[in-house]
Amino acid sequence: MEKIIDIRNVTKMYKLYEKPMDRFKESVSFSKRNYHEEFKALDNVTFSINKGDAIGILGTNGSGKSTLLKMITGVLTPTNGDIVVNGKISAILELGAGFNPEYTGRANIYLNGLMMGYNREEMEERINNIIEFADIGSFIEQPVKVYSSGMFARLAFAVSINVEPDILIVDEALAVGDIRFQTKCIEKMKELKAQGTTILFVSHAPEQVKRFCNKAAWLNQGILKALGESSEIVDLYEDFMKNGPDSGSEVRTISISSEELNDFQLPTNPDVLALVTKVAINKDSFKTFEKLEIRIDYEVYANSIEDLLLGVAIYTPKREYIFGPNTHLEKVSIPTDIGRHSINYVISELPLLGGSFSVDVGIFNNEGLVCLDYKQDILGFSVSNKYFSEGIVYMKHRWEVVK
C-alpha cells in the first residue's frame, strides 16, 4: 500500500508559564533560569497512513489529537521527529481558522482557495458548488465575524470538500450544526472516501469511528496506545473509558413517554427529521427467561429516509453496556416514510440473572453515523430470582463428565 502520511518518532513539548511575565523573565535571564514547566503533548508517536484510508483518531480531551493534526497540516512543528505528507491537505481544525473575520463569506472562499494553491479563476469554477453546499443564504455576502458557529462549520466544510483534497482532516466539525447538515457532510465524506481520498476523522462518538473508518488510532496522554482495525480499537478505547474513574451514573427511570398527538403534525423546527415519540415495556419486573417486549413509536417528518434505523441498548445503572443491537446491523427493514410508525423489540427469553437495568432507544440514519433522536434511560426494569446461578447473564452451557 502507498503511504500518504508517515509519522516517525514525533514528540511535541510545550513550555507552560505560570504568569505571562515569566516568559519575559526567562528570555532576559543571564543565569538561564527556567521559569516554565514542560508539558509533553505527544510522546514518540510513530505510525503511517495509507492512501485511501479512513482513520479515526480517538482520545479524551488533552490526549494530543489536535496537536497531531496541526502538525500533519504544518500549523505546528514537532519538537523531535518527522512527519512526511505526500498530498494536498484540506483541514477543518478549528471554527474560524483560516477565515478573515472582516471578509465576507464569499471573499473567504477565495482566500481559502488561494491558501490551497488555487488562483481566482480556478475558484470561480468551484464557488457555486461551495455556496450551494454551505446553504447559509444571504449571509454569504456578510462578514464572517457575524456568523454563528454552525455557519462557520457549514462554510469551512463546503470549502474543504470542494477543492479535491488528497487528504481531508475533520476535527469535531460534525459536532456543530443541525442534523440535516451532519447528514449531508457524512454523505459527502463517504463519496470522497469511495473516490480514494484519505480521511482523518476525529469524533467523540466512537460509534461514528467504528462505522465510518476502516482504521483507528487511540491516543492517551500523548502516547499512541493502539492502532489497527477501527472496530477493534474502538472496543479497546470504550473498555478503557468504561473502567475509568468517570464511568457510570446512578440515574435510572422506570417509565417515560410523550403524549400521543391527536393529529400528525410536522415539527416547527425544519431540522428535525425523525423523533422517538413513545417507548413502553410489557412490565418492569422480570424473572430470568421471561419474555421482554419494548414498544417503540416514532415519527418521520421527511418524505422518506431510506437508511433509517432503530437501536435499543441495555445498561446497568452504572452505564455498563450489556447489549445493543440495531435494525441496520441485523438487516431488519423498518418503515422510513413520513408519518407515525411502531416497532416491537422482543427478547423471547431474557438471559439476565438479577439486578436493575435501563434502556436507551435511538433513531439514526447513514448506517448509524448520524443520530436523529436519542432517549437515554428512557425506561428501566429489574430482574430477580430465587437463587439458581451467579453473575449477570445466564449462558447456555453443559457439563461433561470425562472420567
From TrEMBL:
Organism in which the protein naturally occurs: Paenibacillus donghaensis
Keyword Transmembrane helix: no
Family: Belongs to the ABC transporter superfamily.
Recorded GO CC terms: membrane
One Pfam family in the UniProt entry: ABC_tran
Name of the featured protein: Teichoic acid ABC transporter ATP-binding protein
Domain ABC transporter, chain residue ranges per copy: 5-246
Keyword line: ATP-binding, Nucleotide-binding, Translocase, Transport
GO molecular function, one term: ATP hydrolysis activity
